[in-house]
From TrEMBL:
Domain (Pseudouridine synthase RsuA/RluA-like) ranges: 26-174
Its job: Responsible for synthesis of pseudouridine from uracil.
Alphabetized GO MF terms: 23S rRNA pseudouridine(746) synthase activity; tRNA pseudouridine(32) synthase activity
Family as reported in the entry's similarity comment: Belongs to the pseudouridine synthase RluA family.
Keyword tRNA processing appears in the UniProt entry: no
Catalytic activity: a uridine in RNA = a pseudouridine in RNA
Keywords, in A-Z order: Isomerase
InterPro entries: PsdUridine_synth_cat_dom_sf, PsdUridine_synth_RluC/D, PsdUridine_synth_RsuA/RluA, RluA_PseudoU_synthase
EC number(s) reported in the record: 5.4.99.-
Protein name, UniProt field: Pseudouridine synthase
Top-level enzyme category: isomerase
Length: 228
């Protein structure tokens, strides 16, 4: 069995509240704060999480996709079995669209491009991952949105085609532009530039499981305030 970060460490849950972005009888869309697991971890002290908090208000809410503990942003939570099944199939077939925003060190060149590098578990440094030709195919599109000269950094848009663990972090680090505040793949100086991982799920699009209408949601990141 593969060990994960949740198995190995106690991850203190933030006191920051989750935000309700959309609600109907079939599903919720919420915005998860950073420093909160999406689902309970295996460690007994990692039970406080997004879904446990949401279920206090919406007991039938369930999880169909996750964001890392360090990552903030949009999550869809089905409220019915039909919605869970339908949305799960859409995620599995990559029919959903997810766009992230991140602050990375330096300025990527070219300003728009694609990182196509396979990712594998790092057996010598669990629970980390690594770029490896023997890993699973992983593709990320990136685009520079604005420059942050004071921080010697850039705000970038990241669109993962695949959904590998730590994909966005690794892909940006692999081209020399680590995400600021990343406790795993950034340098110590880059980590110290932010009090949190500067990665946010900003756009989420999927087909409504009942109506068939394309649903599109946007939540702007607030992590620019976290720059130190």
């Amino acid at each position: 069995m593969t060990m994960t970060l949740n198995d190995l460490a106690i991850l203190p849950a933030t006191t920051e509240k989750w935000l309700l972005v959309y609600q109907d009888e079939h599903l919720l869309v919420v915005s998860k704060p950073a420093h909160l697991l999406t689902v309970p971890g295996r460690h007994p002290q990692n039970q406080d999480c997004l879904i446990s908090r949401v279920q206090q208000e919406f007991p039938s809410a369930s999880v169909v996709h996750r964001l890392d503990y360090d990552t903030s942003g949009l999550v869809v939570l089905p409220l019915t079995r039909k919605a869970l099944s339908t949305i799960s199939k859409e995620f599995q077939s990559r029919g959903t669209k997810k766009i992230y925003q991140a602050v990375v060190s330096g300025v990527p060149e070219p300003s728009e491009g694609t990182v196509d590098k396979a990712i594998a578990a790092d057996a010598d440094n669990r629970p980390l991952y690594k770029i490896s030709a023997e890993g699973k195919a992983s593709v990320t599109h990136y685009k520079v949105l604005s420059l942050l000269p004071q921080q010697q950094a850039s705000l970038v848009q990241l669109e993962p085609v695949t959904g590998r663990s730590h994909q966005l972090r690794l892909h940006m680090q692999s081209i020399g532009h680590a995400i600021l505040g990343d406790p795993f793949y950034a340098t110590q100086a880059q980590q110290q530039q932010s009090s949190r991982l500067m990665l946010h799920a900003a756009v989420l699009e999927f087909t409504h499981p009942q109506s068939g209408i394309l649903m599109s949601f946007t939540a702007e990141p607030d992590f620019l305030q976290a720059l130190c």
